[in-house]
Amino acid sequence: MTLPLDHPLVDGRTAASPLIRAYRGDRPDTTPVWFMRQAGRSLPEYRELRVGTAMLDACLNPELSSEITLQPVRRHGVDAGIFFSDIVVPLKLAGVDVDIVPGRGPVLGAPIRTARDVAALRPLDPESLAPIAEGVERTVAELGATPLIGFAGAPFTLAAYLVEGGPSKDHLRARTLMHADPATWDALLTWAGDVTGAFLRAQVLAGASAVQLFDSWVGSLSVVDYEARVAPFSALAISHVKDLDVPVVHFGVGTGELLRSMHAIGVDVMGVDDRIPLDEAARRLGANVPLQGNINPALLAAPWPVLEAHVLDVIERGRAARSHVLNLGHGVPPETDPAVLTRIVELAHA
């Protein structure tokens, strides 16, 4: 299948944008920049808009999800919007009993730990994706030449929440299931890969110009476990958008040792967290791989001269890669002063 004729990559709106050029391995005149978690709690306009609305309700309200996605683009002048969503939204759409508890995160009504639990999971009904597609369409109509990035959680991270029943520091139950009952594990990750893939595909067909697959918790795995028990299912997830020829970015936390293996599933761009420098990431991956990252979020509250020197160092180290999109090594902390993010964008563009 090809993209619709009115898709921003096809009709020319975003194909030559700095972000898409960098994602495809070109180096535009200015370094493109956006921030993971740029939409959300760091913005006063977001907090005002969210009053009285639960997180998942906001994600599934096309008018709200679009407006929240657009807020940081207007405020900061970033080179991309990233669609406002949550890792567990596709789980919710597939009928899983999950809610986001303030101060704790995603919590399931009952964890998924047995073959019977996995067999009871339903495939994602394409019609359930209508509010996601509408939210993307509304956003793309407002963004013009600025690309929208689609968002989804990778199968391992989804499985970690499903098996643990909520947030976990070490994902021990998930990692145990991987070895103790590999058939159930494979069935669970196949389900998660197809759900994530369908979620990404809906966003692309509705107008997203790139997608990012977040594997937030995959840094808890060894290379051997990742390659044998996780990589095939992350590859399954992105196979759902391969025929659409949009850039695919892959990012995980604490994944310095996994970078080569994560890239090998067939993605175009590797996101790098702040634990290893970009020039070292380029050395591990080879200089031909576009990179994204990796400002240390802890430095966003540092005095400007300290942060400025760090940002310039990140940009300089990014020259070791084929191309570079400036971002954080993880998401924007909620207490971040929005003016600091705007200043980073101005610095990068200068």
Please describe what this structure looks like.
- This protein is an alpha/beta fold.
- Helix content is 44%, strand content 11%.
- It contains 16 helices and 9 strands.
- The strands form 2 sheets. Strands 1-4-5-6-7-8-9 form a 7-stranded parallel β-sheet. A two-stranded antiparallel sheet has the order 2-3.
- α15 links the parallel β8 and β9.
- α4 runs parallel beside α7.
- The radius of gyration is 19 Å and the shape is globular.
- It starts with 17 loop residues before the first helix and ends with a helix.
- The model has no long low-confidence stretch (mean pLDDT 96).
Features:
350 residues; alpha/beta; two-stranded antiparallel sheet; globular
Write the layout of secondary structure elements.
Blueprint: H1 18-23, H2 44-50, H3 55-59, H4 62-76, E1 81-82, H5 89-93, E2 98-101, E3 105-108, H6 115-119, H7 130-143, E4 148-153, H8 155-164, H9 172-180, H10 182-205, E5 210-215, H11 223-229, H12 231-239, E6 248-252, H13 259-263, E7 269-271, H14 278-285, E8 291-295, H15 304-317, E9 324-328, H16 338-349
Parallel strand pairs: 1-4, 4-5, 5-6, 6-7, 7-8, 8-9
Antiparallel strand pairs: 2-3
Helix pairs in contact: 4-7, 7-10, 8-9, 8-10, 9-10, 10-12, 15-16
